[in-house]
Amino acid sequence: MPLLLVLDGNSLLHRAYHAGSFEGMQAPDGSPIWALRGLVGYLARAAAHLSPDAVIVGFDCPESSARRTSYPQYKAHRPDKSDHLVAQLAAAPRLLADCGVCTVVPPAYEADDVLASAAAAARAAGWESVLMTSDRDAFALIDETTSVLRVRNGGFDEAVLIDAAGLPALYGVTAAQYRDFAALRGDPSDNLHGVRRFGATTAKKLLAAFGSVEAAWQAAPALVAGAVGAQAAAAFTGPGARETVARNRELMTMRHDLTLPPLTSARLPLDYLVMRQALRGRGINLGPSLWALVGGAPPPPASAETAEETPELRPWVFRGGLTARRDPTPGQMALF
């Protein structure tokens, strides 16, 4: 079955920005490029591990937000971004498009919506998809054909590939329950408070006992109190809880119906010369590390003489059933 790799450009560029800020890599003209280089590096490494047949990268619309129009407090608490981060966020979609990467910036919507719509398009076409992001919201999109490659603190070496079998073991809820779980808990990063007295542990207990928030609301109050305790049960059945959950669900629900380029336009391989020229135009030189994106062969493992220059990184962590089919090529992790 063909595989589509979809990247959340905003979340990964933010992570690359903070990870590389101590270096402060700049282009010859003095413009910041370390987050751009890191984002392309994430793409190249994921392609090397997963051997996708096509790639799409999504970005948040920088001009307008349908969610903020619906709920003005959405993300309103976030501090202003640094000029260096703003510059690289603005440059990233054009750089990737110049490289030949299928890049989507949906009007009024976010990279999360690109992930959801791309996963739906892949499923309809008989493809599998892997959604690469540092956010947990994408867990709600996991199903039998859709997995999430989550990049955590520590970078790509600490990434986990999570499928429908692995999510309950890792987070204690199924993909079908994840939106209820998130709506109960809230999301401080998006300025969405949850139901009072409901953190992650209490939300899991409620969903483990009843399966969904609707089922819990229909249950006897004594049963809810037995599952989560009297105080949490009182908050769950008290005024405002239903409105909070409904608002969070609405804002957390990702669009599955955005108009995207056809999968044929996202297919690999990319043109190596075009990609390298676009990157060099920004002062970025990745060279052989692009092999999986441009149809090249994996280089040999690092020799003893070069081991100190290109040390083998820690094994990549997998959760679920993709390991047997898409194991990394020995030695390829030493490229970055």
CATH architecture of the largest domain: 3-Layer(aba) Sandwich
Portion of residues within helices: 40-55%
| Beta-strand percent range | 5-15%
Average of per-residue pLDDT values:
89
**Distance, first to last CA:** 28 Å
Cα radius of gyration in angstroms: 21 Å
Helix-strand category: alpha/beta
Whole-number tally of structural domains: 2
CATH fold type of the largest domain: Rossmann fold
Question: Can you describe this structure?
Answer:
The chain is α/β, with parallel strands linked by helices. It has two domains: 3-170 and 255-335, 3-Layer(aba) Sandwich (Rossmann fold); 174-252, DNA polymerase, domain 1 (Orthogonal Bundle). Helices cover 40% and strands 12% of the residues. The protein has helices spanning 9-20, 34-50, 66-70, 83-99, 111-124, 167-171, 175-185, 200-210, 213-218, 221-228, 230-237, 241-252, 272-281; strands spanning 3-8, 54-58, 102-104, 128-133, 146-152, 155-162, 186-187, 192-193, 317-319. The strands form two sheets. It has a seven-stranded mixed beta sheet, with helices on both faces. It has a two-stranded antiparallel ribbon with strand order 7-8. Residues 304-316 and 318-336 have low confidence and may be disordered.
SSE arrangement:
Layout: E1 3-8, H1 9-20, H2 34-50, E2 54-58, H3 66-70, H4 83-99, E3 102-104, H5 111-124, E4 128-133, E5 146-152, E6 155-162, H6 167-171, H7 175-185, E7 186-187, E8 192-193, H8 200-210, H9 213-218, H10 221-228, H11 230-237, H12 241-252, H13 272-281, E9 317-319
Parallel strand pairs: 1-2, 1-4, 2-3, 4-5, 6-9
Antiparallel strand pairs: 5-6, 7-8
